[in-house]
Amino acid sequence: MNDLLYEISGWFGYLTRPLVLLQCISSALLALAYLLWLRPRLSGRGRRLELAGGGLLWLALRLNVVVLNQLGRPYGLALYFTQLFGLWLILNLLPMLAARWIPAAPAERFLSRVVRPLFLLLVVGSTINQLDSLQDVSDIPLFPFFDGPMTTGGVLLVFVVPYFLVTVAEVPMAAFGRLLQSLLNLSDSSRVALELVGRYLFIGIGMLWLLRHIGISGTALAAVAGGLSVGMGFALKELLSNFVTGLWLLVEGSVRPGEILFIDGDPCQVRRLGLRAALLWRERDNAELVIPNQDFFTKTTTTYTGSDRLRRCSVLVGAGYRHDPTEVMALLVSLASTVPGVLPDPAPRAFVLGYGDSAIQYSLRFWIADPMKNVSTCSAVNAALWQAFRERDIEIPYPQRVLHGPPAAGTAPHGDA
Amino acid sequence: MAALKRRAVSRGLAAIAALAAGVLLGSCAGSLGPVPDTLFIAFEDASPEERDAQGEDTNRELVSRLVREFSRVNPSVNIHLRHFPPQELVKGIQFRGTRGLGPDLVLSRVRPALALHRQQLSEPIALDNDRLQGIQPRFLEDFRRDDGRLLAVPLLVQPQLACFNRKRVGDPPGTLDDLLARSAQGMRVGMPLDIVGLYWTASGVEADRALWRLVMPTPGRPSDQEDLKRWLQWLANANLQRNINFAAEQGELVSSLENGDLDWISCQSGSLERLLAHLGPDLGVAPLPGHGDAPARALFRLMVWSFGTNSSPRQRQLAEDFVVFSLGASIQKTMLDEQIRYMPVVDQGQVLFPTRRSDVWAAMRTSLDHSREVPYGSASDLEPRGQAINSLLTRTILGAMSPDEMLRQLATDPRQPGPGP
Which of A133, A115, A126, A32 is nearest to A79 (CA)? Predict the structure, then answer.
């Protein structure tokens, strides 16, 4: 650690050089002029104008480089600042340019999760390389670690590689999944499962590379795993169980992103199958349910998307005794076919369920393609049914009840007029 | 979304502002004094693979030792080292120079030092003669410009030697004829396949001056053609000997001597530590065989200091102090205690040589006394000329071209200087 601090302290030694100060101060003054004078005047006057202000600062920084060059002074640092600021401007322009082709949300997510962290890494790495040798700095030993020392580069990799493995793996695996889907004619859920397994593999291989790179050999890894296996087994039992279950479920295919499961009487869509738990979306109240993977492994799961995505729905209705059940059933079947969302095949069917106190009970059963649309389609069918009954004067009778009370006082049961 | 973006921009600008503030504060600190004196030293150091090919060791310990010794008497000076592979030294210093971040001092061989000077990446220095009086004049003169300033200051010197296995070679050969005779009796000999490494063989047939005139842009003499032919014939003849081998890289010769595949090689003193580590007391070192009683006139290599162009006045002062310190008799003796790869450039009467491997030091000293510096000159076309001659020489030694043909090519090819009028 002392070596690293000593190396960093050396960078400040450059500040005693007038040639370095000239570049730094001239660039810093231009940046301050922009921040304190120009930017407040452009603030709130539109994104494009603000970016144009940034462009002006870039031009001023570039002019500064030209002037330094003309004066025969070193200008590389000033040029470096200009290049960094130019890159930053381009990063801010990217969302505007990408908006034509890519939806704003995923574009912003990619920028914030991948591009901007990469830019930060670029700034740190290139700045070190300006002042020093990036290779030399990354080789500085910090503390003993297994067979050799842990270096600055190793520590940086421990933080950076897992982050980028997790965030960046999504993009190539999504492309790979779509390619395989088009080649093998896979379903969407199979594609998503494939992407997930691919991501885990990508991350796993990357982590193994990282461990080897920072000096943890296979032998050392086996020794650590052996020593900690009992403790880890107890401490992380649930976590490991959920992880293994998640992988199993993906391979098995019963719970995949995009599947519709019946949870506590409501259809829910699987949004994500994570390392520990699955995230499900319940349409009824727009709630998201986080359910440990193990639950799907040990409990009965009802799915609407196991072999197909069809769902059978039913609507109950009563009609008066005076209407011919054959006519009513024909009407029910024909009207169901007219409602959007009701599939013609399998065809809707109507049944007489029984004879009630005041009405004959019918059931209209039909199929829909989207299991999540049960309530809305049933509602539409019920509304159409009411209209059809009204047009044909088919009665939906109220329950009829005859009350018999004692005769009123002073009146004969068979009253005389 | 727009607000988020604005915040992101603000963060970026805040970072720039922080950088600017840091720079301003730093500059103030620098002018007020809290930033300690800092000296940046770059040195040429090949990668392990390149060092293996050259049969040499790293310069890192040597430079670190110098820094440690200087820091003992100047504890307030922070010294930061940067190393560059030989082929990247000039490029790396140019990259830093355009930023004002170039080193204050560069330790390198002469060729890169001259390249730095040609590209104005190093600055000639005017040092008082009093401060340089210890250096032998013959090492210094090549670096003195017309205005009296020095474009580089020598630090250490590497002579060329004969290295052999004592178990196989009792007394080393003293002349070229002796070398051939001993090889005929079974002594396995290894020699490098380049003009600098073979220069000493030319002295053995009294052709070294003609060869010098061939390489340097100086007019030839009538006898040069005959001298060069005699030398080339000797080399071609040597290649026909069963026990004489030519190797393209010095490291190959060193490895072969270490492994026992060769008994006698011509080597640079830079390989001695590596050979000593492998052969121990079996390593024998002697001056290269020459002509008659005199040892060969070989070429030596220098390690020199060049001064950077980006230094502040204070850093330049420290750099000068460091160089003068490194030339002191005391520190040169300390370096001799640490290694046997280099000889001091200071007057050897000022330095007491260590008794450890005194035979090696004696051989190095004898060889150095009869050697001259590798020809670099000031002409920028010297390097391509040397490479072209090297290529022809390789073909001649390996039998792909006769000595007469090589001389004809040298005489007709306008890129080459003629060996005679």
Answer: A126
